[in-house]
Amino acid sequence: MAQFTILTEAEVASLCEQYGLGSLRTVQPIAAGTINSNYRVETERGRYFLRVNEGKSEAEVKFEVDVLSHLVAGGVATAAPLAAGDGRRYAIHDGQFVSVFAWQDGTHSDSKSISEFECTAVGVALAQLHLAGADMPCTNPGRYTLGAVRKEYEAFAASTDPELADALAVLKEEFAWLDANEAERQRQPAGLIHADLFPDNVLLRDQSVVALLDFEQACAGSYCYDLAVCANAWCFAEALVPNRVSALLAGYQSVKPLSASELQCLRIEVRAAAVRFLVTRIRDIYLPKSEGNASGAPGKDFRRFLMRLRTWQRQPPRWLADLSAASRRS
User: Cβ neighbours of residue 136 under 8 Å, at least 6 residues apart?
Assistant: First the structure.
């Protein structure tokens, strides 16, 4: 559970007052995510989602506000944070920036039970996000460029932990392969991307997208990479589920067809995305636990992304491109 800032009821009540939400009735911590502290709040005026933005600068919080406001204006299924009494769409509590959103009813998919209809809906929503964000100036490259991920890897690459041996060997070879293909990645169309559209960042109802959530990693990047993140997040159960991949691509291409170059580059981007999450799961989850910190989030074992990476490595060179083209024709 990502609960680094523990708010008392009195503190939450004070924040509700800043936002003009009325008297606090109930507050409940939400055990989700690995970065922020989240709460479900009910007041006399309704239900709300309160988030303490752990470790963020004011500029980062303002950027997310701008992103969400732009996307809401463009018709994307998401929500901008509410305005506090001073007009800013965040409040300050004990040096931390706090965002409040109107509560939206919906559910998150479990990776074992994701349906093809849900994958199609997510593909559609992602394409709509890319189109709506295309005219928003954005030069922030985000936290997870290839160079940044490599630096994280190099911090533990010399580890002699036997549990990491396979992952370290695979990563060493994979970074070399990605370096050789970086020029192709850089040629792809780019703009505002979500960069982290996992099932816990999508609210669904009746297999339709209610809202896209958690834009704190939104940045400028390749649209193809953003789609590859979704393929890693939505298209695996115990193993790759090809029908989910087809459904995701069909949904995306029904709104924003992929170019021939993007179709080819998918084979690279799914591996680049798997490398990113393999490295960050080792850094954020495995290493702290191995050092005696038991706060690692359950269900985020790095081996899951080692399996994904090896799966993508085994596919024929044109497999994703042919699957993508077929999904567009269907």
Answer: 66, 67, 70, 191, 192
**How many Å apart are CA 13 and CA 24, to the nearest integer?**
6
Q: Is 110 inside a domain boundary?
A: no
Kindly state whether residues 149 and 15 are assigned to the same domain: no
The mean pLDDT of 22-40, rounded to a whole number, is: 87
Q: Which residue has the tokens 């924040």?
A: 15
- What angle (nearest 5°) sits at the alpha carbon of residue 290, between those of residues 288 and 291? 65
Could you tell me if 177 and 87 lie in one domain? no
Check whether residue 77 and residue 121 sit in a common domain: no
Q: How confident is residue 55, by pLDDT bands cut at 50, 70 and 90?
A: confident
Q: Are residues 129 and 187 in the same domain?
A: yes
On the CB side of 179, how many CA atoms lie within 13 Å of its CA?
9
pLDDT score recorded for residue 2: 47
Residue 91 is classified by DSSP as E
Residue 1 lies in a domain: no
What token pair was written down for 248? Answer: 């995701």
For residue 79, the number of C-alpha atoms closer than 13 Å in the C-beta half-sphere is 19
Give me the helices (H) in 53-115, please.
Answer: 58-73
Work out the pLDDT band at 297, boundaries 50, 70, 90: low
Q: Is the pLDDT of residue 36 over 50?
A: yes
CATH code of the domain containing 24: 3.30.200.20
Which residue type is seen at 121? Answer: A
Angle value at C-alpha 200, between 195 and 201, nearest 5 degrees: 45
Q: Range of 227's domain?
A: 116-329
